[in-house]
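Dear colleague,

Thank you for sharing your sequence with our group. We've completed the structure prediction you requested, and as agreed, I am returning the results in plain text so they can be pasted directly into your records. Please verify that the sequence below matches your submission; if there's any discrepancy, let me know and we will rerun it promptly.
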Amino acid sequence: MTLAFVFSRSGGLLALLVFTLAVCLPLRAQAEAATAASRETVATKIAQALDAKNPDERLKRLVGAGAAVSLAEIPDALAAAATLKELRERMVLSEAVFKRWAALAPGPAFQAAAELPEARGKAEVVRVAARAFAERNPAEAAAAALRMTGARARSDAIEVVAETWARSDVPAALRWATSLPDGRARASALHDIRFIWVHSDPAAAAVGIRDLPTGDTKNALIMNIAGEWAAIDPPRAIAWARGLTDPTERGWAFANIVESWADTAPRAAGEFALTLAPELRDRAALAVVARWATLDPEKAGEWALRLPDPSLRVRGAAAVLNLWAAVAPDAAGRWVREIEPDGLREAAITSYLEAVNDWDPETGLRLAMETSDAALRLHRAEPCFRRWIDLNPMAARQWLARAKLSDETKQRWLAATPAP
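Please find the predicted structure tokens below.
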């Protein structure tokens, strides 16, 4: 029956009354029934969670119950959480419900979280709600964060909004953060935005951080800019680094440029590193070697052995072996054996043994025993044997029984190890 038909049969006012009784009251009854059913559903979920005898399982189920509520069930779920017997139960259910609320309606969830008493639980739910709110409407989230009164939660909310906003619009986030009054919240917001900026637009960030005071934060930003920029445009990154006036900043920039460049063109990065001034060359060359070793340790090692300075060759070989010997001890050991017998080879053996001993002391021991100098041979071999006998006593003892060592040495090595 339509409203027009009711008017035609009974007259305006009476018809409207009849319509209200016939249609609206059943709707109200349905809504009340739905609310009651919702409460029953929430109560049932919580009761089922509380049935678990194991405390950890009980808390896990409460989290699941809170994460599954509908938007309409949230008030009842929060009210139910407040009545739970144990503090930990109240905490985990309330937090789970707030997180669910933030996912469904972040604005209202943030407003409700902002009104909670200052405590650890508030800080957690404020951060979750602020992030969800800022993902949907960063400007509104920023305004809401500034209206908060609690110092700790307000500061946390500002940081989260700044970080989240920067992921979608760095210039807008920067304008907002710069307008904040001086203090911890402003400093933290600008810090987070800049460290996102250096990855999303390193060229613009390089200009934006130019006038920051020197120090650890600026150095870290420069390192990130250098790495990101070199990955996409090495020549421009190099030109920027050459323009840095502070020697420390320039050094960090070049080291990270060549390391990032080495991911795609290690030989070119290495040759460039060798053109730098002496105070920058060594750090840059070693950065290339370390990154190159993750791609092709044998070629990285060959390049390291041809470095112009003897001490740099030793450190370059050590950088390669530090990784290579731990993941492929046999191959790394063969490479070490192929080095011409000289001081560099002896240094490479030492580096190899330091890297391999934790993972494959048997292989390390066999290489140590090839040392020509008797005293150095024993000095290198003993730590490998001690590690091996810890891991595999039977095999280590069998090897020692056959080894071409004096009885005094064998007894000394065994005496220093636990009895089987």
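Summary note from our side: Residues 1-34 have pLDDT under 50 and may be disordered.

Kind regards,
the structure core
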